[in-house]
Amino acid sequence: MTTIASLLLLCLLIPLVGAVLIGIAGRYPNLRETFTFVTAGLLLACVMALIDPIMKGDQPVVQLAELMPGLTLSLQPEPLGLLFALLASGLWVVNSLYSVAYVRANDEAHQTRFFVFFALSICATLGIAWSGNFLTLFLFYELLTLATWPLVTHHGDEAAKKSGRIYLGVLMGTSICLLLPALVAIYALTGTTDFALGGILEGHVAPSAALVLLALCMLGIGKAALVPFHAWLPNAMVAPTPVSALLHAVAVVKAGVFTVVKLMVYIFGTGFLAESGITGWLTALAGLTIVFASLVALNADNLKRRLAYSTISQLSYVTLSASLLSVVSVTGAVLHIAAHAVGKITLFFAAGAIYTAAHKTRVSELRGIGRRMPWTMGAFAVGALSMIGLPPTAGFVSKWYMLSGAMAEGQALAVIVIILSTLLNAAYFLPILYQAFFVAEDSQTPPHGEAPTGMLIALTTTALLTLAMFFLAEWPLALARLLH
User: Fold this and answer.
1) Is 168 found in the same domain as 198?
2) How far apart are CA 325 and CA 272, in angstroms?
3) Which of 79, 154, 279, 366 sits CB 3.0–4.6 Å from 479 for a disulfide?
4) Residue closest to 188 by CA, chosen among 272, 97, 282, 68
5) In the beta sheet, which residues pair with residue 362?
6) Which H/E stretch holds residue 49?
7) Which domain holds residue 54?
8) Are 261 and 322 in the same domain?
C-alpha cells in the first residue's frame, strides 16, 4: 500500500478510533478532552501530509470494495477534496477548543455523547472529501446526516426532537428520493460512477436527459439548502452553538456545496453543461434563494436565526457561481467554500460567546455589548465584513471572482443578485456592529465580561484566518485552478 493510500485510510480511521476512545474516557473529562485534541491534531497532520503529492498530481485510486463491475467504494485525493479536508480538519482543532470551553461554561448535559458524535461527523466529512466516485460520496453523505442528527437533538426537549425530525426528513428525503435515483441512472447510462475531470456523461446522454439528471442531483443535495429544501437549517439552530458552527462552517452545509461543485465538475463536466445550456434554471433558483434568505435574515431578531438565513444565502452564492460554468466563476465558487467557512464559524463562535457571557440571544439586546466584549465583537466584525464581501477579508476575494465571472459571461441576473444581496448583507450585519460599539447599553444589563479564554482564543483564531485568506489567497486559488 502506498503512503498516500495509507494516509487516506488514516483520515477515516483516526476520527473513528478517536470517537471510541472519547466514549471509553467519558467518566474522566480531562482524559476525554485530551483524546479529542489529540485526535483532531493527528487528523490535521495526516491531511497536511497529502498537500504536496496532490499538488504534484499524485492522485491514486484506493479501492475499498467492489460491489459489481464498475461499481466500487473507493477513495481518491484531488484538489477540491483537499481544500474541503483541510477546512474540516483544521477547523475541527479550533472548534474542539471552543467546544470544551463552551460545554463546561454552560454545564451542558451528555458531554461525552457530544464529543463522540462530533468525531464521527468529521469521519464522515473526510469520507466525502476523499470519495473517489459518486457512490462512495453518497454513502458518506448519508452517514454524515445520521452522525449529526444526535448533535441537532442534543438537548432532548420537544423543540430539539421536532427539529431533528425536520432535519432527517428533509436531508434523508431529498437524498433518497432525488439524489439516489440520479446515481442509479448515471450508473445505468455510463457503467460507472467514478469521478473524472471533465465529467463522464458526455456522449452517453442527450441534453434533455442531462437536464433531468442535473435537476435530480441539485435538488437532491438538501445540504446545499436551495429553496424549497432549506427549512432544516434554521430549525437546527436549537442545537448548542458549537454544533451550529459544525453545521454551518465545517461539515454539513459545506458537504452540500462541495457535492454541488464536485458533481458539476467531475460527473457532468462544465464543458458539457455549457454546450447543453441546461443550467439557467439553477442560476435562477440559486439567485432566488440568495435574495429570499437575505430578506428573512434582515427581519430576524434572534441572532442565530439571522446567521442561519445568512448561511442559506451564502451557500447559494457557491451554487449560483458554479452554475455559470466559466473558469473564473467556478474558481469563485471554490474560493467561497473556504471564505464562508472561516467567516461563518467566527460569527457563530461570537454568538456562542455572547450567550455564554451575557445570556443574550437577540440582536435587539446587543446595545453597547462591544464595550464589554471587545474581542468577541471585534471578531464578529471581521466575520460580518467577510459575509458582506469587504476588504481585507476572505469574502472580498471570493465575491470578486464570482462577480467578475458573472460579468465576463454577461450574466446580468447573477450580477444583479450578487450586488443586491451584498447590500442586504450590509443591511443586516452593519446595524449589529453599530449597536454593539456606538450605542449605549441598557442600564439594567447585569455586569459581565468576555467569555472563557478557550472560546476567545478560538474565535480570535478564526477571525485571523478570515483576514489571512485575503492576503494569502494564492494558495486556495492554486487549488481551484487545478479543477480546469
Assistant:
1) yes
2) 10
3) 79
4) 68
5) 302
6) helix 29-49
7) 1-277
8) no
> Residue 301 class from Cβ within 10 Å (0-12 exposed, 13-18 middle, 19+ buried)?
exposed
Nearest to 333 by CA among 466, 233, 483: 483
Total-model pTM: 0.94
Residue 89 and residue 144 in one domain: yes
What is the number of domains present in the chain? 2
200 and 145 within one domain: yes
Give me the phi and psi of 198, to 5 degrees please: 100, -10
Distances from the Cα of 454 to the Cα of 94, 116, 262, angstroms = 9, 20, 35
Ordered per-residue pLDDT tens for the chain, 484 residues: 578 999 999 999 999 999 999 999 989 999 999 999 999 999 999 999 999 999 888 888 889 888 887 789 999 999 999 999 999 999 999 999 999 999 898 888 888 999 999 999 999 999 999 999 999 999 999 999 999 999 989 887 888 889 889 999 999 999 999 999 999 999 999 999 999 989 999 989 999 999 999 999 999 999 999 999 999 988 887 778 787 777 667 788 899 999 999 999 999 999 999 999 999 999 999 999 999 999 999 999 999 999 999 999 999 999 999 999 999 999 999 999 999 999 999 999 999 999 999 999 999 999 999 999 999 999 999 999 999 999 999 999 999 999 999 999 899 999 999 999 999 999 999 999 999 999 988 767 777 889 899 999 999 999 999 999 999 888 778 777 777 6
Going by DSSP bridges, is the β-strand pair 71-75/62-68 parallel, antiparallel, or unpaired?
Answer: antiparallel
User: Are residues 196 and 127 part of one domain?
Assistant: yes
Residue 191, classed as helix, strand or coil, is coil
What would the grid cell of residue 353 be? 460567546
Contact indicator for 211, 278 with CB cutoff of 8 Å:
yes
Residues 120 and 149 in one domain: yes
What SS3 class is residue 64? strand
144 lies in the same domain as 217: yes
Please state, in angstroms and as integers, the Cα–Cα distance from residue 186 to each residue in 157, 200, 323, following that order: 42, 9, 20
CB atoms < 10 A from the CB of 412, how many?
10
User: Is residue 305 located within the same domain as residue 330?
Assistant: yes
Domain boundary among the residues 243, 277, 311 is at 277
The three cell numbers locating residue 463: 477571525
Residue type, 474: E
Residue 417: how many other CB atoms lie within 10 Å: 24
